[in-house]
Design goal:
Strand content of chain B: under 5%
Order of helices and strands of chain B: EEHHHHHHH
CATH architecture of one domain in chain B: Orthogonal Bundle
Number of helices of chain A: 20
Order of helices and strands of chain A: HHHHHHHHHHHHHHHHHHEEEEEEEEEEHH
Distance between the termini of chain A: 69 Å
Number of helices of chain B: 7
Number of strands of chain B: 2
Shape of chain A: globular
Strand order of the largest sheet of chain B: 1-2
Shape of chain B: flat
Helix content of chain A: 55-70%
Radius of gyration of chain B: 39 Å
CATH class of one domain in chain B: Mainly Alpha
Helix content of chain B: 40-55%
Number of strands of chain A: 10
Structural class of chain A: alpha+beta
Distance between the termini of chain B: 98 Å
CATH topology of one domain in chain B: Helicase, Ruva Protein, domain 3
Structural class of chain B: mainly alpha
Oligomer: heterodimer
Strand content of chain A: 5-15%
Chain lengths: 676, 205
């Protein structure tokens, strides 16, 4: 099967190179034969890569430990679930996964894109083929071939890193990959639009679903990564500003900026240059993220994918950036706005400031991530840039963004009058002020937490007001019952009201982040029967009693579990069973250092988080760390609401003619006005 | 009580009742609140039993002391970067990855310096002298490092000012050819609204 896998890779490379050449040449008028060939090349490359994936999965499931990748990431007793996910657990497999998914997305884009965009498709095929060919080249020429064989066959493999043996890790990396990879499709359309000089709003219509899809995958991937870090790593938090976490946040920020600014182009024909730059920048940041993850140039906890292939990515990144922005620069004269900004106090202007903050946060994250390298170049000393730095710089910016989330929807398009502003802001501003007052009276004094929750109140009131007005308007106009009017409001204006649901999720996330300001933790050594008490920020007292330790085998691991009884204000509410896990291979040999498995008791207001550090002198006397993390469940709820909102926004609906008409309507309207 | 040929016991009623009463008395006499763990077999270590296989639980840890939970010590340790490669601060590393031997050693160093009467800043300075500024979780705010802290904020402020100026220019440029000002609450002129209505009527339902 590895021979088949290797052959498939080589075939995919050859077809991919041809597809790239045919695509770029076929994108010009007069060569429909090459355009067709490029399209078929993407399908053929996709087929060849799927065969390679099948060959690697076959080797994984057959425990063919003569294949270096199989021996490095699996063992005979690895559960099937994780044997499957070993496909993308290592550097080489994830490159194959990346190239394959890209070719699948490319094929889907070629099949699903309506015919009216057919002129762009050969170049789209060319870009997809080129990028996929690069990934295949890295595998074949960068010592990253997943089918490479060993000179000997080990009795068993090394097994999968225990931290990756978690359901979150089965879904988190592919979701992030899907987000990163799918950005290539809007990027390919942008390049096609630039090359063909068809720079009207049409290419934006073609990529709308793809940009939303990328954003949705990135959002879900980031949230799953936070959940995995929380339930698996044991440090009691979900975001540590690790360079690899930052790398996933960067394209998310720029894509979110794009999703806002593209509305200005669709409605008013403005910001064409900016939107193109955002798409190109987002794609480059996705490649930058890959470079960071795989190069080891910046120290990161995600060290399991570091290798020299990072420098292939750096070279590709630089060449791609130079080529894309050169092309962009040559087309700048064609990217003039169709209308002018009429007022500083308008929705358009607020979107621009919203974009300024998104890009500002992206810049500060990028700056902080790269500052150690910069410092080494300038000062000769590599400094550490950890959470204190990022929090200091980004928390105020994030709160300003939260404020704009509420302000933006309250300001009218084109021009907002003073009476209009007064009417729009009255309820939300009162709600924000009232929230702040309640918190201050309740005794909260943490500045950022106060601000985050008060702004949360303001934005929530904005959203409720928007839904209430829309529902009332439908009720008045069509005589619909309020519930029906609300449902139809959402169904008929998915983009707008789905966006508000995303905003609701973001508010919940910000409030939940603020909750971590009140985290409480303690370390304790307890003998069986001994207790430790912990006071929650809500005033409860938790009493944690160590009952004893049990040891047993499960699947591919030997478990040492402590049982801790939890009482709140003296009443028993359950048990925590934190574990130490010693993973073993099929022959019972230890494969990694013993790892910790936290126990979490999740409640609506707070989580009780217990970690078994270890035992004292081989006895049941154990070292624990207990943490009370307020509002953590709301991080996951917020993430889910963001995902649901995103799905509502991108859910297909209405006829293509209606969508097209909506997309360019405002621009045409103003254009006609100008002519009249 | 007599034993039969087939090895079963024949119990008289009196014997049975005596045995039952004795058992009941024994249970009552030995009654006390249920303990969570039977008395320990290890003298001097309290009610703890030995683990069946201690190696499975990782390396043995020393008991936690009051100094380990000292908030002042934690504040110091959260500013010091663990050098094991984990990218975490000393406090987080030593209370998370209990297999790490570097962060406990750094923690001991902090405790030793604290016991010598040094302040938090003096302890941090000592770590910097011994390991360089990379030992800090965030670079000190001096020299080139100031750029690290202020470039993003300055860039955003400059971009914000520039954006405001550009927008003002755009607004001024748009004013001569501007369409009629919108009425109070509406975002569109009556002509636009009429055209919008016509366009909407043309759309397929």
């Amino acid at each position: 099967m590895t021979v088949l896998g290797n052959l498939a890779l080589w075939l995919a490379l050859l077809v991919g190179v041809w597809g790239a050449l045919a695509g770029f040449v076929g994108g010009r008028p007069g060569r429909p034969d090459l355009a067709h060939s490029a399209r078929r090349a993407v399908f053929a490359m996709c087929g060849a890569l799927l065969v390679a994936v099948f060959a690697l999965e076959w080797a994984l499931f057959q425990h063919d430990f003569n294949v270096e990748y199989v021996a490095a990431y699996t063992s005979r007793n690895l559960p099937i679930f994780y044997t499957w996910s070993a496909l993308y657990a290592g550097q080489k497999g994830s490159l194959l996964f990346w190239a394959t998914v890209l070719s699948v997305f490319g094929s889907l884009a070629l099949v699903l894109t309506p015919r009216r965009h057919a002129e762009l498709l050969p170049t789209v095929a060319g870009v997809v083929s080129l990028v996929a060919s690069f990934f295949i080249s890295v595998m074949l020429f960068g010592h990253a071939n997943p089918f490479q064989r060993l000179r000997y066959t080990p009795l068993d493999g090394s097994g999968l890193n225990p931290q990756l043996q978690n359901p979150g890790m089965v879904f988190h990396p592919p979701m992030l990959y899907l987000g990163y990879i799918s950005i290539t499709i809007p990027f390919a359309f942008a390049i096609a639009a630039l090359l063909s000089k068809r720079l009207d709003a049409d290419w934006l219509v073609a990529i709308r679903k793809w940009t939303l899809l990328s954003w949705l995958f990135l959002s879900i991937g980031i949230c799953l990564g936070m959940w995995w870090a929380y339930v698996e790593l044991g440090w009691g938090g979900y975001w540590a500003w690790d360079p690899v976490e930052n790398a996933s946040l960067l394209p998310w920020l720029t894509m979110t900026a794009f999703l806002h600014s593209v509305m200005v182009q669709e409605k008013r024909g403005m910001l064409k240059k900016w939107n193109l730059a955002l798409i190109i920048g987002s794609w480059l940041l996705s490649i930058f993220g890959t470079f960071i993850t795989r190069s080891g140039v910046i120290s990161s906890v995600h060290s399991f994918t570091q290798s020299s292939v990072g420098y292939f990515f750096l070279a590709f990144l630089l060449v791609a950036a130079a080529a894309s922005f050169t092309l962009y620069a040559t087309r700048l004269p064609l990217l003039t706005a169709e209308t002018r900004l009429e007022s500083m106090v308008s929705r358009e202007a607020s979107f621009l400031f919203n974009n300024l903050l998104f890009i500002g946060i992206a810049f500060s994250v990028l700056w902080g991530t790269l500052f150690p390298i910069l410092s080494e170049l300038v000062q000769g000393t590599k400094v550490t840039v950890g959470p204190p730095f990022f929090n200091q710089v980004n928390v105020p910016l994030g709160l300003a963004l939260l404020a704009l989330t509420g302000i933006g929807p309250l300001i009218a398009w084109r021009r907002a009058s003073l009476p209009n502003l007064r009417r729009q802001f009255a309820v939300p501003a009162t709600a924000g002020g009232f929230t702040l007052l309640v918190l201050l009276v309740g005794g909260m004094r943490d500045f950022y937490a106060l601000l985050a929750i008060a702004l949360g109140g303001f934005v929530t009131a904005t959203i409720v007001q928007e839904f209430a007005r829309g529902t009332r308007a439908r009720h008045r106009q069509y005589g619909e019952a309020y519930a029906l009017a609300l449902a139809r409001l959402l169904a008929r204006n998915r983009r707008r009201y789905g966006g508000y649901i995303v905003h609701t999720g973001m508010v919940i996330l910000f409030v939940a982040f603020a909750g971590m300001a009140f985290k409480t933790e303690t370390e304790a050594t307890l003998r069986p029967g001994e207790s430790v008490s912990l006071r929650s920020p809500y005033g409860h007292t938790y009493t944690l009693t160590h009952l004893g330790i049990s040891q047993y085998d499960a699947l591919n691991r030997q478990i040492t579990a402590a049982t801790v009884e939890v009482r709140r204000n003296g009443k028993p509410i359950g048990f925590l069973t934190p574990e130490k896990r010693q993973h073993v291979d099929g022959l019972g040999r230890p494969t990694f250092q013993p790892s910790t498995e936290p126990a979490i008791m999740s409640m609506l207001r707070e989580d009780l988080y217990g970690v078994l550090g270890g035992t004292v002198a081989g006895t049941e006397q154990a070292v624990f760390r207990f943490t009370i993390n307020p509002l953590v469940w709301w991080v996951w709820y917020g993430g889910m609401i963001v995902a649901v909102g995103g799905l509502i926004v991108m859910w297909p609906g209405g006829s293509p003619a209606a969508r097209r008409a909506q997309a360019g309507y405002a621009v045409r309207l103003v254009g006609e006005e100008g002519k009249a | 009580m007599t034993r039969r040929q087939d090895a079963t016991l024949q119990v008289s009623r009196r014997d049975f009742l005596t045995l039952g009463a004795g058992s009941l008395l024994g249970v009552v006499a030995s009654w006390r609140p249920v303990t969570l763990q039977s008395p320990d077999s290890l003298p001097g270590t309290g009610p703890s039993g030995r683990l069946w296989d201690p190696a499975r639980a990782g390396r043995s840890l020393p008991p936690v002391t009051a100094a380990d939970n000292d908030a002042a010590i934690q504040v110091i340790e959260k500013q010091i970067h663990c050098t094991c490669g984990c990218n975490l601060d000393v406090y987080t590393c030593r209370t998370t990855d209990f297999s790490c031997t570097v962060s406990p050693a750094m923690h001991q160093r902090v405790l030793t310096l604290a016991q010598q009467g040094r302040s938090g800043q003096q302890i941090i300075d000592q770590f910097v002298r011994e390991n360089g500024i990379a030992i800090l979780m965030a670079p000190p705010k001096r020299g080139f490092n100031l750029a690290g802290y202020f470039v993003p904020s300055v860039a955003i402020v400059v971009a914000g000012v520039a954006l405001t100026l550009v927008l003002r220019r755009w607004v001024r440029a748009a004013q001569p050819g501007a369409v009629a000002a919108p009425r109070g609450d509406a975002d569109a002129t009556p002509e636009e609204l009429a055209r919008l209505r016509r366009e909407l009527e043309r759309l397929p339902s």
